[in-house]
Amino acid sequence: MYLTKEEERILDGEEGEGPAKAMKLLVALGEINGADELIPIKSSQIAGVSYKTMGDAGLDFIEDFSTKAAVTVKSMLNPAGMDLDSPGEEGNEFREKQLRMVKAYANMGIETTCTCTPYLAGNRPRKGDHLAWSESSAVSFANAVLGARTNREGGPSALMAAVIGKTPNYGLHIKEDRSPDTVYRVAEDIPPALLGYHVGGDVGGGIPYFRGISYNEDEMKSLGAAMAATGAVAMYHIDGITPEADDFTTDELEVIEVTDDDIEDIKAKLMSDNKPEAIVIGCPHLSKQELEWIAEHLDDKKPKAGPELRVYTSRSVKDHSKEAVKIIEKYGKVIADTCMVVSPLEDIYDVVATDSGKAAEYLPKLAQQKVVYADLNSLLEMVA
After folding, report:
1. pTM confidence score
2. What is the mean pLDDT of the chain?
3. Which CATH number is 271-381 given?
4. pLDDT under 50 in the chain at which residues?
5. How far apart (Å, rounded) are the C-alpha atoms in residues 120 and 136?
6. What confidence tens digit (pLDDT) does each residue in 37-72 have?
7. Residues near 212 by beta carbon (within 8 Å), at least 6 away in sequence
């Protein structure tokens, strides 16, 4: 892989230990994947923030590295393990260590906006922008919906790219590698979370091309998140909607029909007779429009003595949705900075209900929770 003289200087340690470590990782990653060079990035989105997933070893690494390096591009964090402003159920030790981890990231110049939807919190890339993003649903949205370019980075590689301001040029940074490999013909009324859950498991790490659907941005957010969870989908196209859908020919691709039976099979897999103790909504984090829709649906209805409602969003969206938040908090909690997957929710509830394909896939695996899937309307009917 070609390096400029400046990049060689950094690799040789002439700019310090931290940048040298960052450059060494990026060079290794580039050589493994056949990259020809490093390319500048506009921003980074860094996973590995929740103390629940990182533990003491992760905390020690971040605190040490934060004394040796600083980021050189706009950088944001993935959800932490708790709401940073409001004490919750996480316990004093968890909270103290989580705040230490976020502080260490801040010491490197990283914005402590902890969200899986950075594009809803002040970092909306433009078509063609090169990025180093690591959260799987954010990667999918950036590539597919916005037309920006990022591989599905790990937390360490996204952090090192943020320090150098560059990333190896391979994979989805290259136009021809963004071409679809399978066409899915779909009935338009299929819920995006269920469609994504099905197709992700079917296509794996491929790039699907959809015909027959016309989702809005919130629905595409849900679609991409589910595909990234059940598969490893980092990009997709929707005929006539996503910005690069017309850039590639699909004439010779296999066409797969998504049938009602396919979706009914997914429903049967995800639904259960377990009684939920909590309803968790916001995986990925909700947009302002979604918060307002929930508030409008609940407003003036009588709260029920049922499962607790927990709604997750970014701090930015929560702060810009004060009226909606005020209404929703008559029926439950609006929680920022974290989510049901990376917070220690399993310490409180054994069974939760959700409308998220991503949460339905991850919660049983990462939190050993039983999950009941239902659409949003049905979930809110349990509340009011």
Report:
1. 0.96
2. 96
3. 3.30.499.10
4. none
5. 15
6. 999 999 999 999 999 999 999 999 999 999 999 999
7. 185, 186, 187, 188, 239
Q: What is the pLDDT of residue 96?
A: 97
Are 285 and 310 in contact by the 8 Å Cβ rule? The answer is no
76 contacts 45 by C-beta, under 8 angstroms: yes
Tell me, what's the pLDDT at 130?
Answer: 98
The answer to whether 112 touches 77, Cβ cutoff 8 Å, is: yes
Helix (H), strand (E) at residue 208:
strand 208-211
Return the CATH number of the domain spanning residue range 5-175: 3.30.499
Count Cβ neighbours within 10 Å for each residue of 317-341 and write b for 16 or more, e otherwise: bbeebeebbebbeebbbbbbbbbbb
C-beta separation of 298 from 380 below 8 A:
yes
The pLDDT assigned to 292 comes to: 98
Same fold: 5-175 with 271-381: yes
Six token digits for residue 123: 């970092």
Evaluate whether 69 touches 18 at the Cβ level (below 8 Å). Answer: yes
Token pair of 11 as six digits? 């690799």
CB distance 165 to 40 below 8 Å? yes
* E-assigned strand segments in 242-369: 255-257, 278-286, 308-313, 332-336, 351-354
- Quick one: how many helices (H) and strands (E) in the chain? 14, 15
Name the nearest CA neighbour of 355 among 329, 381, 317, 325.
381
Hey, where are the domains in the chain?
5-175, 179-268, 271-381
Tens of pLDDT, residue by residue over 322-345, are: 999 999 999 999 999 999 999 999
